[in-house]
Specification:
The complex is a heterodimer. Chain A is an all-alpha fold. Chain A has eleven helices and two strands. In chain B, helix 3 crosses helix 11 and helix 4 packs antiparallel against helix 5. The two termini of chain B are 21 Å apart. Classes of the chains: A mainly alpha, B mainly alpha.
């Protein structure tokens, strides 16, 4: 190797940054739920699978895009409300780790139900975006990745506006800040939780479509959740900005590590590299980049 | 004391050692005489391996309160360490198994270090690192599997002190003996000061620190003990149950399975690991029979797999909601109710 190939480096870096945006997309769903109900929702990945599978099966039955999207959206809202009723409400006031384990069970149920309903075969999903590389001053960028990044950016913008300028957004922030105080001033916690879970369902629909177009709609789609967890650890579980920055950072370091140091380890390090990177970072800052610092009093 | 034991109900109470002794008597004396090889190979041996792994996880999660999602990784470390020690060092097999447990301890302490700074979800996520890292190492570096394709290892034949344990009953007895010894040790540990330290750290870390519990030492010790037991469980899983294993067999699903065992069986209970493992092993068999009976030909393996996931998930949520202390609490609640009723009847008759 003579000299450092800057063009190649930039290409890898940009590819990594953009694929990191895809991770952020999944992570945002987690953050929404964690912020308002204090649950790390492991079922996010299976919700994503459920949404993508429902959408694909509906379009394969001949429904137009908009109608299929609408029906799937409705299904996700119903699912969100159902989860609030059947799982969250009976478990109110339990330790967070109990709720986490409940979402593990939930992910099993949703995965099983989705595949029982729609079958286990792999579906292709075409969103009508060509995946042709775009050349920008010598650097090749995937058009699909750019599209996904644009979608993620607009979703974050929407969510931020929603949280800042609507009454429900205000209620969400109140609940996130202090559940008891929110209850005290008369906010209806069950309704807010149902709304949040429905919103997370909608986010997982968008993420599911993008990831599904990338990987094909199949069981392994629910494993995307495992890609999002180190992003959350790095960014902090309760920060949307953290999810974005964490996702981009993880995406970039992961790709760079795979390309530049992966060969020394026989390759295939992307399964664990993100975790180890996030972990190393956590040992320095235990609350992640943007997470709320926990103050302990004795 | 004489008055107390003269009271009805108290005198009737059976001594605590009787239950385990009866169970062991049945397991050693009766089961080997009546069982079929299907019973040993498909039910009892995997049950023993899983319950031992669940016991190990319960010490970490149930007693010390540190949630781990990397159980299968430590099982894999145990299994592959025992395989390599047996292959390369030429030590007696029993020593290999103990050393394999210690290999799991080393890995467990390394991945337990984040627990000193992280809590709750952050720790649960960081234990996933162990899961993926160990699986990657075992698949990528073929030295660990003696250069076999895709990391598959074959278990050595089980010989101890000149006796062969290579048939189905022998492997069952081998597993049973190891599980019995480790369970006895675990019970002793839990009832000692160390065990109470575990519980103190789980219930309130700061309060534990204030009353003088060495929190760091206790946490790392919990990781070490738990990893040792889980590592040995991995050896049983590989050597006595499957005989041929690959790293992919110790995947995240296995880790979840063991976590589910202790949730269903009972967090923070020794018996819970066994009750939960029994349910997890038997329930797929029952479900497939029932499904076949009800749905006939419609019930193929795909449907079975999916409905298994659904029922399992529903069970987890159901237990967390209705009986957070698991099957064990359910069972002892039932016996207590019966005992109370008996006592009331007796006092009424007086």
């Amino acid at each position: 190797m003579d000299g450092f190939d800057y063009q190649f480096f930039t290409e890898v870096l940009v590819g990594g940054l953009l694929s990191g945006v895809m991770y952020s997309l999944v992570a945002i769903g987690f953050v929404l739920i964690y912020k308002t109900s204090g649950v790390l929702n492991f079922a996010q990945g299976s919700m994503l699978l459920f949404a993508a599978l429902t959408f694909v099966s509906l379009t394969e039955h001949g429904l137009p895009f908009v109608l299929a999207f609408g029906i799937t959206f409705g299904a996700m809202v119903v699912l969100g409300i159902g989860i609030e009723r059947a799982v969250l409400r009976p478990l109110v006031n339990r330790p967070p780790i109990t709720l986490f384990m409940a979402t593990l069970g939930l992910s099993y149920i949703i995965e099983g139900a989705a595949q029982l309903l729609w079958g286990t075969q792999v579906h292709g999903l075409d969103l009508g975006i060509e995946d042709t590389p775009l050349e920008l001053s010598g650097v090749l960028i995937s058009k699909f990745d750019l599209f996904a990044a644009a979608v993620a950016a607009s979703m974050v913008a929407l969510l931020t506006l929603f949280f800042r300028y609507t009454r429900i957004g205000l209620a969400f922030r109140a609940v996130a800040d202090d559940q008891f105080a929110a209850l005290g001033i008369g906010l209806r916690l069950p309704r807010i939780w149902a709304t949040v879970w429905a919103a997370a369902g909608a986010v997982s629909l968008v993420a599911g479509l993008l990831w599904g177009a990338r990987l094909g709609v199949q069981f392994s789609l629910s494993l995307v959740v495992l890609k999002a967890l180190p992003v959350l650890v790095l960014g902090g579980f309760d920060s949307i900005q953290g999810a974005i920055v964490g996702g981009v950072l993880i995406g970039a370091t992961e790709k760079l590590a795979e390309v530049y140091i992966g060969d020394y380890f026989n390759g295939g390090i992307e399964t664990w590299f993100a975790y180890v990177a996030a972990l190393a970072f956590l040992l320095i800052r235990p609350a992640g980049l943007f997470g709320q610092r926990l103050v302990e009093r004795v | 004391m004489t008055e107390l034991s003269a009271l009805p109900g108290v005198a009737k109470r059976l001594p605590a050692w009787l239950g385990p002794v009866v169970i062991l008597g049945l397991a050693y004396g009766v089961v080997p005489l009546i069982g079929s090889s299907y019973l040993y190979e498909a039910i009892l041996t995997p049950f023993l391996a899983l319950s031992l792994a669940a016991l190990g996880l319960n010490i970490l999660t149930g007693y010390t309160g540190q949630v781990s999602l990397g159980t299968a990784a430590f099982m894999a470390v145990g299994a592959y360490a025992a395989y390599n020690l047996n292959l390369r060092a030429g030590l007696p097999l029993l020593l290999d198994i103990v050393l394999a447990g210690f290999a799991a301890v080393v890995v467990g302490i390394i991945f337990g270090l984040p627990s000193l700074r992280l809590r709750g979800f952050y720790l649960a996520v960081s234990t996933l690192a162990a899961q993926f890292f160990v699986q990657w190492v075992l698949t990528k570096f073929s030295w660990f599997s003696n250069d076999s394709t895709s990391g598959v290892i074959d278990a050595p034949s089980l010989h101890f002190f000149g006796y062969s344990f290579d048939n189905a009953v022998g492997r069952y007895l081998f597993a049973l003996t190891i599980v019995t010894v480790l369970t006895a040790l675990a019970v002793r540990l839990i009832r000692s000061q160390t065990g109470r330290n575990f519980i103190a750290v789980r219930d309130n870390e700061i309060a534990a620190k204030v009353i003088g519990v060495p929190v760091i030492k206790t946490k790392l010790l919990a990781f070490a003990v738990s990893s040792f037991i889980i590592g040995v469980a991995g050896v049983i899983w590989a050597f006595a149950y499957l005989r041929t294993v690959e790293p992919a067999g110790f995947n995240l699903d296995r880790s979840f399975q063991i976590l589910f065992i202790i949730i269903i069986g009972g967090l923070g209970s020794i018996r819970g690991a066994y009750v939960g493992a029994a349910l997890i092993v038997v329930f797929p068999l029952v479900l497939s029979r029932v499904g076949e009976f009800l749905l006939g030909g419609l019930f193929d393996s795909g449907v079975l797999d999916m409905s298994q996931r659904i029922v399992l998930g529903a069970l987890i949520i159901g237990f967390l909601i209705a009986e957070p202390d698991g099957l064990v609490a359910l069972l002892s609640g039932t016996t207590r109710r019966f005992r109370w009723r008996g006592r009331n009847l007796q006092s009424a008759s007086i």
